[in-house]
Amino acid sequence: MEPGTLLLLVGGLLAVSMAVALGAARLGVPTLVAFLALGMLLGSDGPGGIDFDDAELARTVGIAGLAAILYEGGLSTSWRRLRRVAVPAALLATIGVVATAVLAGLVAHGLFDLSWLEAVLLGAVVASTDAAAVFATLRFTHIRRRVARTLEAETGLNDPVAIALTIGLIDWIVDPTFGFPDLVLAVVQQLALGLVVGVVLGAAAMWAFARLPHSIGAFAPVASVATAALTFGVADTIGGSGFLAVYLVGLAVGSTPSRYRRQLVAFHEGLAFLAQVAMFVVLGLLVFPSELPAVALPGIVLAALLVLVIRPAAVWIATAFSDFTHRERALLGWAGLRGAVPIVLATFVLSSEVGEADTIFNAVFFVVVVSTLVQGTTLEWVAERLDLIDPRPDVVAPPLEVDALGSLELVEFDVAGDHSIAGVVVRELGLPRTALIAVVARGNETIPPRGSTTIESGDRLFVLAPRESRPELEDVFARWRQRV
User: Fold this and answer.
1) What is the dihedral of CA 100, 103, 104, 106, to 10 degrees?
2) Could you tell me which residues are beta bridge partners of residue 419?
């Protein structure tokens, strides 16, 4: 294919994807489902007529895309936000995933013509919540902070567990000498090595990004992509979980006070969107609508039970000794969105020698569609009914502009009720000497602050500071966010 033709096709596909995303947003349809439908329309059973059945290529695209999404999820967060929910999130990501795999396997064995191991494999494939779906949904919802952060941490951690479990079960099915002890060892080895690589390279990345000179600031996104690729490659090469490692390194970079953090987050949000488009279009091409009716009814039943029974039961098992309220556990149970990860894992099965791979792949399609349409569109509504909505301050336009030469910047900071600066007067905020509070937005009014002005919950602070002092300012913001 000529380079011009290839670029024309790629550009056209991206333009169509943007139009699909815009149309889906206006119609209230989840974009993930819209991209999946676009892939199906382009496939051999659709008007596009593209004959695509390369499961290995789909798996490669899915792995690269999922790594980009997990890195962006970690980068958009920070350890400071997640450390208070690390334990329950880790329990949901481990005990919750195993419980979901076993319970879903029990149901799948009765619904499909699968052996016990194949049924549990199907359960493992659909066991994890999806990073792309959860991050995208939480970005536009106002769910109470503790529950939202638990979901953020869980979805970043449970994908590696589900992936390791899926790979181990595939090995068990295709290799007669493989057994349960080998499965446990393989899962533990992948997670342990991924954890070590993530921690070591995360520490190195924090050191490097905190000292990235201004002279090469334009290359910060390149350095970030290189960091993610090297992390995944190192972990995968030594037999560890590249997904766990890349999420942890993204979390480390996102926790680093740096003048480039906002630039990196914006860049990787776009890259993650591109990854979603590529993943779901390619995965949609692998779906043959003519094969779906045979598994439609049992697939929908499995999806319904996963939403209504299996995920809630797994959450209650994993959080049995936590201090979550019944309402919070109910919302965690409802928030088990399935998306790209189960379909990517289904391509692992499809490219293996598992006998019922096609059945598993088609069943996963229904699980993803039902979960995305039902849970993805009702999550905030359910949170409202459970009284777990955290009100946000109204959007306030910046009340002033800063100098056009770009030596100063205006940085916003939203004050929550549990932040350490709520109730503190301006003179005690501990700002750098080169920074000042320019304006305090409170409700519908703007307040020129004095030293005696008291900061209240819900205020939005506009901090004026030189661009080169951004790392120091981020450290101050970190102290402000500490809970009282």
Assistant:
1) 160
2) 483
d(CA 339, CA 211): 37
DSSP letters for 382-402: HHHHTT-B---PPP---SS--
- Alpha-carbon distance of 258 to 474, in angstroms, equals 7
b/e per residue 116-130 (b: at least 16 CB within 10 A): eebbbbbbbbbbbbb
- Sorted by where each starts, the structural domains of the chain and their CATH numbers stand as 31-385 (1.20.1530.20), 408-481 (3.30.70.1450)
The enclosing H or E element of 293 equals helix 293-305
Rg of the chain over all Cα atoms, to the nearest angstrom: 23
The beta strand positions in 159-273, using DSSP E, are none
96-144 pLDDT, tens per residue? 999 999 999 999 999 998 899 999 999 999 998 876 667 666 666 677 7
Cβ neighbours of 430 (radius 10 Å): 11
The answer for residues whose C-beta is within 8 angstroms of residue 462's C-beta and 6 or more apart is 398, 399, 400, 410, 411, 412, 437, 438, 439, 440, 441
pLDDT exceeds cutoff 60 at 7: yes
Q: Is 466 helix (H, G, I), strand (E, B) or coil?
A: strand
Angstrom distances, CA of residue 313 to CA of 144, 299, 339, 363: 22, 19, 20, 21
The dihedrals phi and psi of 395, each to the nearest 5 degrees, come to -70, 130
Cα distance between residue 319 and residue 328, in whole Å: 10
